[in-house]
């Protein structure tokens, strides 16, 4: 005791070393014990399965006696709880009524009757020739070459004589070929005289030729009529724009020739009144021509042709021919 209020303890150096080593060993042993306990628990789970504390509610324990462990029962599986069946009430099936498209043919579309031709042993020969021609048409198009009018006329002739029907690889190829052929026919109509009877394609008038060709290549007549009407509308728009371009250049005679082409085409394939195709033509021309310019084109058309004035007025977006 020093001064009556402090207690001084003295230790030997060996005692301090012993205390330090004891503390370190106790920490190391406790860490090793915790690690051993964790490994033991993991081995227990792997060997003996889940314990009762991890068993799911309602799960049945499947045990089996293991001979290698002296016949002791071990847990081999825990079945999942069986849930009560859920009743599914089937809703009554809804009847979906498909609206079949009701196509409408133009009044000028002819009814082509299929003639039964008895060729006997030559039937296969005609079929081979027709299909070979279709293959050549498709190959030329794939190679980047345009369709030829002569191929369409020859294909129609082969199918008309033999009654053979051909098919293209895809609908797109078939429609593209028919659309190009329609353009060739419109070129013929625009160059021939006014009378439809003088416009002949290999002995057929243009209407019968296109209707018969659509039947030969397996194209639905409603689809074929739509393609023809669309081509007539596109040609009408092109001729009107070309007419105005020539008119502003002072080439009146050539401008009138473009209007005569429209007149001849409409005589063979007259557009229906208030047709959707002519409305689309009018919508496009309104963006390119002013009202006064369209009225001037209509007056030029009257001077070049006396028929189809109302149809051209619709194509120009004019409410009445007298506007």
Automatic annotation (TrEMBL):
Any stretches that span the bilayer, and where are they?
18-41
> Keywords on this record?
Membrane, Transmembrane, Transmembrane helix
- Give the classification, highest ranks: Eukaryota, Viridiplantae, Streptophyta, Embryophyta, Tracheophyta
What is the organism of origin for this protein?
Aegilops tauschii subsp. strangulata
Superkingdom classification of source: Eukaryota
The name of this protein is Uncharacterized protein
């Amino acid at each position: 005791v020093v001064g009556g209020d402090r207690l001084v303890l003295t230790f030997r150096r060996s005692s301090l070393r012993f205390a330090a080593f004891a503390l370190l060993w106790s920490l190391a042993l406790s860490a090793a014990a915790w690690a051993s306990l964790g490994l033991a628990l993991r081995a227990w789970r792997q060997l003996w399965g889940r314990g009762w504390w991890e068993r799911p509610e309602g799960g049945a324990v499947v045990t089996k006696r293991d001979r290698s462990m002296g016949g002791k029962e071990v847990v081999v599986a825990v079945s999942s709880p069986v849930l009560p069946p859920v009743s599914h009430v089937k809703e009554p099936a809804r009847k979906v009524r498909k609206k079949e498209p009701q196509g409408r043919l133009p009044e000028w579309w002819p009814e082509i009757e299929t003639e039964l031709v008895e060729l006997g042993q030559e039937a296969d020969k005609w079929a081979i020739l027709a299909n070979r021609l279709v293959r050549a048409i498709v190959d030329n198009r794939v190679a980047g070459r345009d369709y030829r009018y002569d191929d369409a006329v020859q294909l129609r002739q082969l199918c008309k004589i033999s009654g053979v029907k051909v098919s293209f690889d895809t609908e797109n190829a078939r429609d593209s070929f028919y659309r190009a052929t329609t353009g060739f026919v419109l070129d013929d109509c625009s160059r021939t005289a006014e009378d439809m009877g003088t416009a002949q394609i290999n002995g057929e008038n243009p209407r019968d030729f296109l209707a018969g060709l659509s039947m030969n290549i397996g194209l639905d007549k409603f689809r074929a009529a739509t393609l023809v009407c669309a081509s007539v509308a596109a040609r009408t728009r092109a001729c009107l724009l070309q007419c105005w371009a020539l008119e502003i250049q002072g080439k009146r005679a050539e401008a009138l020739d473009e209007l005569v082409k429209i007149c001849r085409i409409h005589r063979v394939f007259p557009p229906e009144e208030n047709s959707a195709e002519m409305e689309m033509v009018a919508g496009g021309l309104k963006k390119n021509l002013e009202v006064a310019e369209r009225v001037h084109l209509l007056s030029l058309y009257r001077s070049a042709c006396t028929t189809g004035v109302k149809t051209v007025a619709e194509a120009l977006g004019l409410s009445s021919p007298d506007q």
